[in-house]
Amino acid sequence: MIIKESNITINIKDMDKSISLYESIGLKVKNRWDNHYAQLTATGIVIGQHPTSDTNLTGGAGNISIGFTTDNFEETKSRLEKLSIRTINRQEEGGQFIHFNAPNGTALYFIKPKW
């Protein structure tokens, strides 16, 4: 068996708002089936977006975070500020991080690794 493609699917409440955020940080819409499902891509990753309700999330949602690297960390930081996205910046042994959340609460971050 060979896995040809994979994706991460995130349950969301507002398809348009979620897609808008991911597009604003540089992802592209690969496919969208109205408000039933969408796929967004960045180099090396496909993120699925699937509408849900509070009932579907009760007690069953796992915690995930999605990390990205970028060719220009300072430009990325500036872009998030211009978009009025609330961020938390931190630095540790592995590098610099910019943490923020998608509209549905998914933890996202950009990293400027030291390696």
UniProtKB/TrEMBL annotation:
Annotated ranges, domain VOC: 4-113
Organism from which the protein derives: Ancylomarina euxinus
Source organism phylogeny: Bacteria, Pseudomonadati, Bacteroidota, Bacteroidia, Marinilabiliales
The protein's name in its UniProt record: VOC family protein
SUPFAM superfamilies: Glyoxalase/Bleomycin resistance protein/Dihydroxybiphenyl dioxygenase
Source domain of life: Bacteria
